[in-house]
Design a protein that fits this description.
This protein has about 110 residues and is α+β, with helices and mostly antiparallel strands. It has one domain (about 5-109): Alpha-Beta Plaits. It is built from 3 helices and 6 strands. GO terms for molecular function: rRNA binding; structural constituent of ribosome.
Length: about 110
């Protein structure tokens, strides 16, 4: 798998984990495993990863009531990874995403 990291998961809860325990949360591809996630984080941000925990999140079921009846659907399932770094290290989300954005722009131009 090329790059299992999709985006950082920035919520109040994940920000609290970052400040208190030094854990970072990422939305990752569903097929990614812990070793691939660890290698991707270490390569992209240049940090040492102590541990990786993953959670499979189920997509919500949605219903829409119309004149023709009830239309049922489901959002996609996804995976969330909790990354714990070694003591004294930190990730700057914005520097990592800026580098990737510049690469995308240069490929188009």
């Amino acid at each position: 798998m090329r790059n299992p990291l999709m985006q950082p998961w920035l919520t109040e809860k994940s920000t609290g984990l970052t400040e208190q325990k030094g854990q970072y949360v990422f939305k990752v591809k569903s097929a990614a495993n812990k070793t691939e996630i660890k290698a991707a984080v270490e390569a992209k941000f240049g940090v040492d990863v102590a541990s990786v925990r993953t959670v499979n999140c189920l997509g919500k079921t949605k219903r829409q009531f119309t004149r023709k009846g009830v239309l049922a659907g489901k959002k996609n399932d996804w995976k969330k990874a909790f990354i714990t770094l070694k003591e004294g290290q930190a990730i700057d989300y914005y520097s990592g995403s800026t580098d990737q954005g510049e690469e995308k722009k240069s490929n188009k131009g």
